[in-house]
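In this section we walk through a basic example: taking a raw amino acid sequence and producing a predicted 3D structure, encoded as discrete structure tokens. The instruction is simple. Fold the sequence below.
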Amino acid sequence: MKIFILSVGESIYSTQRLVDEAEERGHQVRVINHTKCSVKLGVGRPQIIYEGENIINIPDVIIPRIGGSVSGHGAAIVKEFEMNGIFSAARSLGILRAQNKVRTLQIMNRKNIPIPQTVFSINPKNIDEQIELLGGPPVIIKLQEGTQGLGVILAESKKSAKSIMDTFYNMNASFMLQEFIEESNGEDFRAIVIGNKVVAAMKRKGEVGEFRSNIHRGGSGELAELTNNEIKIAIHATKHLGLPVAGVDMIRSNKGPLLIEVNASPGLQGVEAYTKVNVAEHIIKFLETNVRKRFQKRTR
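The resulting token sequence is shown next.
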């Protein structure tokens, strides 16, 4: 197979792991910096220009590793490949849905997947009402497009919640409020879903006194065993978003598991280290199977 990995750099751990596993299995791999791609539309067939070359017909499959700051442009590049019949490890629409936490939760709620109680608004005059809709403090305040635990704040009093919300409103930042699940004890669970299967799962726990469990915020991880219900939630979530390969984050509450986020480009370093699962190899094998099926359909 000819594989394009859409990533801003080959030195990134997850990108390099995918390159290594793909080459180990005999595939041709190129890392394409999607931020340097241009799309030409109009007369004639669409083109994706990268370093002076039209690359739209070259790959058999693409693996998007699209960061939040360029998700719009990155998704547009993925969409152009998709419309040219190239299989993608993440659909363009799925990338955009997952990038926006509110959009993800709206879809999950519609599909009856359990989520924390959530409130979002653009009205700075009803801050008290928003807080009370969640039963009062403490509440979690999240930027709608934050990543790696950034833009996630615990407000333990109404005064602090109002101060933070007022600041975000003055910055024209989109945010949401969620109930604080105290019994989660600063722990969450990340499931790596590939196709119809959870191939790896880890528990992440924040540092002492830190409610955020992200590894990037100093948290630690360990191998986790998910319940059947958690596995079902993770697989259904990725299907509803259109993400064949994704990371699904959940917490455990007194009401059962709750989905908090879906990541279209989950990092591999932590999950491979803590679970000892070769996630990169699973991704390449999944792509091999799907490209083979598409080729067989075309040749019948």
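Looking at the output, two observations stand out. DSSP finds nine helices and 16 strands in the chain. The mean pLDDT is 90. In the next section we compare this with other chains.
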